[in-house]
Please model this.
Amino acid sequence: MKLLDALVEQRIAAAARRGDFADLPGAGSPLELDDDLLVPEEVRVANRILKNAGFVPPAVEQLRALRDLEAELARVSDKAAQCRLRARLLALDMALESLRGGPMVVPHEYRRRIAERLSERAAVDEPAASAR
Model:
């Protein structure tokens, strides 16, 4: 991948030297970075540096994990596996809600116990599902 990145960077640099980007709309004026208007100004620079380095906020990572779990749940037909995935979804959703400062902040221990109970139910349902 590094070879491809280097090739892309070389071509971009060559195009810039030729002036291929000089007539683009907005050339020479500051970029409007309005995607972070709700982020305090003193935090924006740090966020950009972290983002450029490949780091993302925990909430973004959790949203990705939530999306992945939902996709996996849609693919799985086994009831026990669905139950386990729903337990993980619930725990992740509650954690995300607490990061947002949402209306319901559920203690970690309580979320863990809910997930355990749902997993226990899945284990009980599993033998019945495999007997069919």
Observations:
- The helical segments are 2-18, 41-52, 58-75, 79-100, 108-131.
- The chain has five helices and no strands.
- Residues 108-131 form the longest helix (24 residues).
- The mean pLDDT is 77.
